[in-house]
Design brief:
Blueprint (H helix, E strand, L loop, with lengths): L5 E5 L6 E5 L8 E3 L6 E3 L7 H5 L9
Antiparallel strand pairs: 1-2, 3-4
Length: 62
């Protein structure tokens, strides 16, 4: 199984799209949108912002 560490996050406020590298040794609970500055938080039930706003599941779910 190949682990994908790149995920594209879409800001729900301004729709800005940014590709980021996911950490393999920690969950990222918060993310600042690089366009509007909104602090994105993982939704209840999701382990990180990549699971909530990204297009690729985080490595901890694989």
């Amino acid at each position: 199984m190949r682990i994908i560490l790149e995920s594209t996050i879409t800001c729900p406020i301004c729709q800005h799209i940014e590709t980021e590298t996911m950490p393999i040794n920690a969950c990222e609970y918060f993310y600042n949108c690089k366009s509007c500055g909104e602090l994105l938080k993982a939704q209840n039930g999701d382990c990180c912002v990549f699971c909530t706003y990204g297009n690729t599941p985080c490595p901890s779910l694989l």
